């Protein structure tokens, strides 16, 4: 004899079981990763294009002076395409792994079998995610370099605007792209000084590029946060599989 349940009660129980089977930690990390990678790749790609245009227009007159920089920018743009594709697939895989190993899924789909293959996959995801987090920490640090360059440029332009009444001292305030390794030392002019630099800072290209680099830097930080969240999530999932394996309900694959 089974107690009678109304259709509303059965529907409510089913919804609660489905919601309980969602790996919220992995889901939040996936959303963070998608948004962070979209910011980093989209804004970073466009910022690199605008940077090449600014260097070509205001800091270099000869094509040979910035041809190396143009090749490097093109290379990084191809790397961005690969990063976007890789992280999209990797986040989907980690989210699927989170659904597979969540403890609530055991109650939803019946007896959970913790296989040796499942435990090996979970441990592999832990190592891969940890390595990616360490590597992405380096990417996060490197993405701060163009922000630092444009910040210094903006600060110099602000100083020039304050000292407009003394032209002699203004001409001594410069931003040299050669000092940052963007151009070779024999590039002409290689730098912008005084009112020329101030006019560069007032252009639409400069303002947009500066904002794009800030957005890319923020996207790198969000992605790093997502990878750290994934590390915690995959470690917990592996602990769940180890616990279920010790109970003897697992089967080797």
UniProtKB/TrEMBL annotation:
GO terms for cellular component: membrane. The chain crosses the membrane at residues 78-100, 121-145, 212-232. Keywords: Membrane, Transmembrane, Transmembrane helix. Signal peptide: none annotated. It is a multi-pass membrane protein. Its main location: membrane. Belongs to the myelin proteolipid protein family. This is Proteolipid protein 1a. It comes from Oryzias latipes (Japanese rice fish). The lineage of its organism: Eukaryota, Metazoa, Chordata, Craniata, Vertebrata.
